[in-house]
């Protein structure tokens, strides 16, 4: 078995770094760690000008280190995955306080000279989790034992990771042997391993998905975090590679009600949920002829409970399949899980 490079023992607990972020969507790594690894997060730290907060206590690096933190995790996933020069003093301060740095950006911490020099001088670690393992093969197309579920979306950043985590948790609570398979930096930080699909050379991306979801016991479920969207003008390639390589038995389509345009691409309207189901099944049959859609996950975080419940019921009737917001739970989620496992 090839050991994934991202399966490292991360220093924890964490201090979450928000940089100078003013767009909540770019702080999804910090929010994901808060929501799914909260016991490992002591607080947050940001530069002047930041307006986004996770709601965790604001701690200086010195205060965090005194409270037991071992690492500062960059909680931002901005467009392009770069580390602005304005962040460097804060990152240096964290190392001076005794914290290692953990990053999931496309920019590598070790490639930034002031950080590299400080790490060598202070004996700190620079850990980049957005690095694929060595030796990824070209996809074989071979069918593998075990069962697989893939979350797919009408767009980026609308709940594919949260849905996969929630479904894996529900499967486990029912006594089903299930593993969450992370495909992005936040998921890797939560799970402690995975493959960052958007950092894999395109020709090997489907092979990476095969590697991430190896042969397993026939009753075992891999619940795979989706990436991008098959309709996305920039990221459809990684979505298709993940679909073909993971060969899912089941898909769950994720959507955020009220979002009409592709995030960051206002000239591109969002596809409909049914269009997303149809295209995913058509393309997925190339490597998994028996692929099926179990249902839909709606991100209703911006809606009140009553409105969310009405929409879930309406969409379930319109689409003819279970619809739920996994974070709200309830009977709707139970029906979605039943359909996944059927």
From TrEMBL:
- What is this protein identified as? DUF1611 domain-containing protein
> Which taxonomic lineage does the organism of this UniProt entry have?
Bacteria, Pseudomonadati, Pseudomonadota, Gammaproteobacteria, Lysobacterales
- Provide an example Pfam family for this protein: DUF1611
Q: Which residues belong to any copy of the D-glutamate N-acetyltransferase-like N-terminal domain?
A: 43-132
Q: Which stretches make up the D-glutamate N-acetyltransferase-like C-terminal domain?
A: 138-331
> Which Gene3D superfamilies does UniProt cross-reference here?
NAD(P)-binding Rossmann-like Domain, P-loop containing nucleotide triphosphate hydrolases
Domain of life of the source: Bacteria
């Amino acid at each position: 078995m090839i050991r994934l490079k991202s399966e490292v023992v991360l220093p924890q607990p964490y201090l979450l770094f928000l940089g100078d972020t003013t767009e909540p969507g770019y702080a999804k790594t910090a929010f994901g760690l808060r929501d799914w690894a909260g016991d490992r997060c002591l607080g947050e730290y940001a530069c002047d000008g930041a307006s986004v907060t996770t709601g965790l206590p604001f701690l200086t690096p010195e205060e965090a280190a005194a409270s037991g933190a071992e690492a500062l995790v960059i909680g931002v996933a901005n467009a392009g995955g770069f580390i602005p020069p304005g962040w460097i003093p804060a990152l240096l301060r964290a190392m001076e306080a005794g914290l290692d740095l953990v990053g999931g950006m496309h920019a590598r911490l070790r490639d930034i000279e002031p950080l590299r020099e400080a790490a060598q001088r202070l004996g700190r670690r620079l850990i980049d989790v957005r690095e694929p393992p060595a030796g990824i093969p070209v996809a074989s197309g071979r069918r593998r034992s075990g069962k697989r579920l893939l979350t797919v979306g009408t767009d980026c950043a609308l709940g594919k990771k949260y849905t996969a985590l929630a479904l894996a948790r529900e499967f486990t609570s029912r006594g089903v042997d299930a593993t969450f398979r992370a495909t992005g930096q936040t998921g890797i930080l939560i799970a402690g391993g995975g493959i960052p699909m958007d950092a894999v050379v395109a020709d090997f991306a489907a092979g990476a998905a095969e590697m991430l979801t190896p042969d397993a016991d026939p009753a075992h479920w891999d619940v795979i975090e989706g990436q991008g969207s098959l309709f996305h003008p920039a990221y459809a390639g990684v979505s298709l590679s993940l679909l073909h390589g993971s060969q899912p038995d089941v898909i769950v389509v994720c959507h955020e009600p009220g979002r009409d345009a592709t995030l960051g691409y206002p000239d591109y309207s969002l596809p409909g949920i049914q269009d997303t189901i149809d295209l995913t099944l058509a393309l997925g049959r190339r490597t998994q002829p028996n692929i099926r859609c179990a249902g839909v996950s709606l991100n209703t975080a911006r809606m009140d409970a009553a409105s969310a419940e009405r929409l879930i019921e309406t969409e379930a009737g319109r689409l003819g399949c279970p619809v739920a917001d996994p974070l709200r739970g309830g009977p709707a989620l139970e029906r979605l899980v039943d359909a996944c496992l059927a």
